[in-house]
Amino acid sequence: MQGPADFPLFPEAVSSDRHHRQALAAADSASNCRTTATASPLRKQVPTVEQSPAMQRLLRLLQRKADLSVSDMAAEAFVGINTLACGGYVSALKKAGYIHVSGWRKTRRGFSTPLYSRGDQPDLPRPEYDDAERAAPGMDLVVSALQRRGPMSYTEIAGSTGLSLHTIKNSGYLTALRTQKRVHICGWRRARKGPMTPIYDAGVGSDVAKPETFSSAEKSRRYRERKDLLQGDRSLAAQTSRLLSRNSAARVSAQPAPDR
Fold first, then answer.
1. Which ranges are annotated Polar residues under compositional bias (predicted)?
2. CA 64, CA 47: separation in Å to the nearest integer?
3. Which of 86, 176, 217, 220 could make an S-S bridge to 131, C-beta 3.0–4.6 Å?
């Protein structure tokens, strides 16, 4: 019995013109129709290597080249990327022992793209992602905005860079930039309602520690102080007005009476 590595493959075509691609697509479609004729109408049945010209082209490709992503294989073997990723072809080849994950390609979000090679071997684990190595155009926009406009909150950064507020809060840009010592927290802004907001600045610097949250008693005391201060301002204005009125009346009464 032949194993996955010894599976006999059909001779590879050498033409790559439009007619050849159309012929390959037609062969794939016919193969899929044959293998799914008796399958459930709700779920397509994944063809076997013996039944699928597309799978045979993939294996021939991986015999020549190693460490290919799904998009690489789709482009070079003339197979739809949706067929590979969503149609179960890659999973079926892995399950049968024809291919394995031999590496990972680093993207803007980390090592997120698996690379495949021929052979029945254990999959290479996904590497840990390190913020110190992260790079993205959005991160450069954040640093440029802080250098240009000075310290800002994440809401102000979003408005200055054109990035969405969701991106600034959830993409991890600010965390990665702090790890890389490109920005730092230079202060905190207290809000009347809600949590305190960190204020970011460009350049190397030590992060300012987050102040402690006011207790209920402290919040009540500060409220009374603001209220007394406002009342004091109004009382002072009233006293000043009354004082000016009294001085004016005193000057009028101090004038000498006219001669008769």
1. 237-250
2. 23
3. 176
Place of tokens 């998009």: 71
* Angle (nearest 5°) at CA 64 between 59 and 69: 65
The answer to whether the beta carbons of residues 197 and 154 sit under 8 Å apart is yes
pLDDT at position 78: 87
Burial state string for 178-202 with b = 16 or more CB within 10 A and e = fewer than 16: bebebbbbbebeeeeeeeeebbbbb
Higher pLDDT, 51 or 233: 51
Residue 113 β-bridge partners: 105
What would the two tokens of residue 204 be?
């190397």
Does residue 202 surpass a pLDDT of 50?
yes
- Average pLDDT (11-22) is 44
What is the full DSSP assignment across the chain? ---GGGPPPPPPP---SHHHHHHHHHHHHHHHHHHTTTS-TTSPPPPPTTT-HHHHHHHHHHHH--SB-HHHHHHHHT--HHHHHTSSHHHHHHHTTSEEEEEEEEETTEEEEEEEEESS-PPPPPPPP-GGG---HHHHHHHHHHHHH-SB-HHHHHHHH---HHHHHHS-HHHHHHHTTSEEEEEEE--SSS--EEEEEESS-PPPPPPPPPPHHHHHHHHHHHHHHHHHHHHHHHHHHHHHHHHHHHHHHHSPPPP-
Per-residue pLDDT at 116 exceeds 50: yes
Q: Is 12 in contact with 58 (CB distance < 8 Å)? A: no
Query: From CA 186, how far away is CA 190, in angstroms rounded?
Result: 14
Mean pLDDT of 209-238: 71
Contact status, residue 165 vs residue 158, Cβ threshold 8 Å: yes
